[in-house]
Amino acid sequence: xxxARNIQKEFDxxxxxxxxxxxxxxxGIFGIIGHNGAGKTTLLKICAGLLTPTSGTLEIDxxxxxxxxxxxxERLGYLPEESRLYDTMTISSYLSFxxxxxxxxxREIKLRSEELLSSLNLDDEGKKLGELSKGMxxxxxxxxxxxxxxxxxxxxxxxxxxxxxxxRFITGYFRxxxxxxxxxxxxxxxxxxxxxxxxxxxxxSEGEKVAFGTMDELREQFGSLTxxxxxRIREPESLGEHLLFSQDDGGFVSTAKDIDxxxxxxxxxxAAGGNVERIESRYPTLEEMLMAV
Length: 293
Description:
Blueprint: E1 2-11, E2 14-24, E3 29-34, H1 40-47, E4 55-60, E5 63-64, E6 76-79, H2 91-101, H3 106-119, H4 134-146, E7 152-156, H5 164-179, E8 183-187, H6 191-197, E9 200-205, E10 208-213, H7 215-222, E11 226-232, E12 246-248, E13 251-256, H8 259-271, E14 275-282, H9 286-292
Parallel strand pairs: 3-8, 3-9, 6-7, 7-8
Antiparallel strand pairs: 1-2, 1-4, 4-5, 9-10, 11-13, 11-14, 12-13
Helix pairs in contact: 2-3
C-alpha cells in the first residue's frame, strides 16, 4: 500500500528527513510521532504530494507520488494542522464549493454532504463557519477532506486543541473510517491517542526513523513488561541501599523487570515490616518510548 525508500528532504543546509524508508502493506491507521522538529509534517506533506523530496522514492496505492503527484489527488483527503475555513460561508455552501472544485456532480455533492453531516453529528442550521466552536470547525474540515470519498487520508494534528469530547469523537470516527477500508496517516502530540488507535507507528527523531512497527513490536524493542510494587512502610531506611524506590501517593513504589526480582522485592519489603498494597504490571507507553530516543 505504501512503499517509501530513502526519503530525503533538504531545505538549504537543513536536512529535515534523512533517508526514511518503510513499508505498509494493508489499510489501517499509521501514526507518525516525534519531538518538535523531528520531520513529521514534512513527511506528511510528502505523502500528500504537496512537497517533493530531495531524493528517494514513494509509492502509495500503486501511484508514484513523486513522479505523478496529481494522480494521487482523486484518492487523497488532506487535513493540515491549521485548516483555513471561509468564515462567512455556511457548512452546506462550504462543502458545495469544494465539491465543485473536486468536479463532483451537484446531486452527488448534496447526497455526500448529507451523509457526512449525519455521520459527523454536524447540524447545518444556517450558521456561518465563523460562529462555530473549534471542535465543530474541525469536523467541517474533516467532512471537506472526505467529500470526494478518498481512500487515503493524511491528517496532521487532527485533534490539536480540541476539548476531550470532540477529540474522543474524532478518534472514534477514525476507527470507523479504517473499518470502511481507508488508509489513514496521522501525526499527533497526544501520544495516548496515537497508541490507542494506530495499527502501525513510526517514531522520528531529528529526521531519522528510529522505530517502526505495531505497538507489540515497539514494546519488544523498547522494553518488556514492568512490575510496579506499591507499598507502605514506617521506616523506609530499613529497606537498605540496594532497593530503589520513590515516593508515591503517600506511600512508595519500586519496580521489577521479572518475576524473580518481583519476589525478591516483596520479600524484602515484608521482612522490613512493610505492607505491599498492590502490584501493577504494564508495558512501556508510547510517551516513554519517545522519551527514550
